[in-house]
Design a protein that fits this description.
heterodimer; A: 454 residues; alpha/beta; Arc Repressor Mutant, subunit A; 3 domains; 6-stranded mixed sheet; 24 strands; B: mainly beta; Ubiquitin-like (UB roll); 5-stranded mixed sheet; 1 helix; binds FE2/S2 (inorganic) cluster
């Protein structure tokens, strides 16, 4: 059998990437794993650098055992040389079955026969007036600062947005001793109830969420509207908002964390030739795969870069993708029907969650003309609307006219809001406004890395 | 050159027994802890990381996971680094603005 000589590359060493690697290793394959982190674990199970001493229980709470199991497994595979591991390395481009990456020792190419992308997710952001100020961060960033560095990013914190991370980060910060001034959820109580039937697929998680919510007490407000951050040179000084009954409120703060659930990180999937469909529950374009995660010839997707199912779902998806990969290599595979059933349950839960804490479409449509939509280049909603009027209602056209999506984050934080604004202006659906085409490099490539090697 | 305020944006909530690391920010001596990212190190003695190229405001990073590219700072030798995903090391000479003569 020649298939073992095939080269399998995994991008991402979070829960999905680690479980995929485990299954490949047990089939006698030595995969290459490329990860951007300083240490493997991904975002949710992110590990602090060496020298930090908080216990896993303090870092990961009820999920400590799962986090430790993944970290131990990964470290063992690296120590036993069962995987070829490239940490702190970013894949910038993917063409002709070759990944172009930037590693700490310079540029490097990785050829592959099969590619498993476990690239995870980033915060899904909606533009809020003033969000370009220093001291406004994503909710994910707020959590990373606490978990991986033991710090709060401000002295008086307001968290705003919607989704599981909002409540989680708030309770973690409170527990660590940070001062929180308010937790502002744009989802109303009534909307949250609509997600409940689906969420009951995992009743334990619902209960845990409610207990966390209870700990926030009067800091938590549902159904919040009209957010606006006021900042001076140093950063935020207050946030203005309307409560569920429409009354205006002002909360003093020096740091704001915002985020509306997550957005699948799909840039490499796009470059690798995957197709996408607009998913109304998650309000974003997600790659098209079969139920194992097969996306294109020799390309498999797993974890939150495919579906936003949380860390447990990512572990299962990692196994399924590796399973598909082995099967296609004509290698023996274990039975995966239990994993497929698990996935179905996680997906019911996650869709319920997505409905309970939705993308704030109405709020985005009302974004004032002077609000920055693209943080990278300071492009406003007004400029984007002008782009639609001149160039027509298509995301890639508006991008070339108004530059929204052209900045260095490559549209990660403005693409969904941009599509919403285009759709609103042109009276079409978000789906019709279209999706930005991926462009390599998917991370900025310092020109020096190429010059040095030339 | 404006002196940096003594206390920065971040509040250390735990893990403060780590060894100290010394670096320079815009020429002034600063202190951080081993294991701090460059972002944490700078923001423990300043409010922000850099000037935005496209707007009047300063910037202090946004995603902390290498995705937004809002946190690139300069080193005195002209090199640049992504502050959220690089650990600070003893003797680093960091700049919040491009060193003289460097094109942006
Ligand atoms: S803060 Fe986003 S890349 Fe560093």
């Amino acid at each position: 059998m020649t298939s073992v000589a095939e080269k399998v590359v995994i991008v991402g060493a979070g829960p999905a990437g680690i479980r995929a690697a485990e299954m490949l290793v047990s089939a006698g394959i030595k995969p290459v794993i490329i990860d951007e982190g300083i240490r493997a674990g991904g975002q949710i199970y992110r590990r602090p650098p060496d020298g930090f001493i908080r216990s896993p229980r303090e870092l990961y709470g009820t999920e400590a055992e799962k986090a430790v199991a993944l970290h131990t497994l990964f470290d063992r595979m690296v120590a036993d040389e069962q995987v070829e591991y490239y940490p702190q390395s970013s894949v910038l481009a993917c063409a002709n079955r070759t990944l172009h990456a930037l590693t700490p020792s310079g540029r490097r190419e990785f050829g592959y026969n099969r590619l498993i992308l476990a690239t995870g997710a980033t915060d899904r952001l909606a533009p809020v007036s003033g969000w370009q100020s220093p001291g406004v961060y994503s909710l994910g960033a707020t959590q990373i600062a606490l978990k991986a560095q033991g710090v709060a990013l401000g002295r008086k914190i307001v968290l705003a947005g919607s989704g599981p991370l909002l409540t989680l980060v708030a309770t973690q910060l409170l527990k660590a001793g940070a001062e929180i001034a308010a937790v502002l959820d744009t989802s109303s109580m009534a909307t949250q109830m609509t997600g409940l039937p689906g969420m009951l697929a995992r009743p334990g998680l619902v209960l845990r969420g409610l207990l966390m919510r209870a700990k926030l007490g009067r800091l938590y407000h549902a159904g919040v509207r009209s957010l606006g951050i006021y900042a001076d040179e140093q950063g935020p000084v207050r946030i203005r908002w309307r409560n569920a009954w429409g009354a205006e409120r002002v909360t003093d703060c020096d740091m704001v964390g915002i985020g509306w659930h997550l957005r699948a990180e799909t840039q490499l999937a796009g470059l690798a030739g995957c197709q996408f469909d607009y998913d109304a529950d998650w309000a974003q374009w997600l790659p098209r795969t079969d139920r194992m995660g097969r996306a294109a010839e020799g390309v498999y997707l797993a974890g939150e870069g495919l579906r936003i199912l949380g860390a447990d779902g990512a572990e299962v998806a990692g196994r399924l993708a590796a399973h598909a990969c082995l099967y296609d290599m004509r290698l023996p595979v274990p039975d995966s029907s239990a994993d497929l059933r698990r996935m179905a349950r996680y997906e019911r839960f996650a869709r319920g969650m997505a409905r309970a804490f939705p993308w704030p479409a109405e709020m985005v449509r009302k974004t004032s003309d002077d609000t920055v939509v693209c943080r990278c280049e300071g492009i406003t909603a007004g400029q984007l609307r002008d782009g639609v009027d001149y160039g027509g209602a298509e995301a890639n056209r508006v991008k070339s006219l108004a530059r929204v999506g052209m900045g260095r984050c490559q549209g990660r934080y403005c693409q969904l809001a941009g599509a919403e604004l285009i759709a609103d202006r042109a009276g079409i659906s978000v789906c019709e406004a279209g999706r930005l085409r991926e462009q390599a490099p998917v991370r900025p490539a310092p020109i020096g890395a190429w010059v040095r090697d030339a | 050159m404006k002196p940096h305020p003594r206390t920065g944006r971040i509040v250390r909530l735990s893990e403060t027994a780590r060894p100290r690391v010394h670096f320079h920010l815009d020429g002034s001596p600063c202190e951080a802890l081993a294991g701090d990212t460059v972002l944490t190190a700078i923001l423990s003695c300043a409010d922000n990381l850099r000037q935005s190229e496209f707007g009047p405001e300063r910037r202090a990073g946004f995603c902390l996971m290498g995705a937004c590219q809002d946190c690139w700072v300069w080193q005195a030798d002209g090199g640049r680094l992504r502050a959220c995903s690089t650990l600070v090391t003893d003797g680093m000479r960091l700049l919040t603005e491009a060193p003289g003569g460097w094109p942006l």
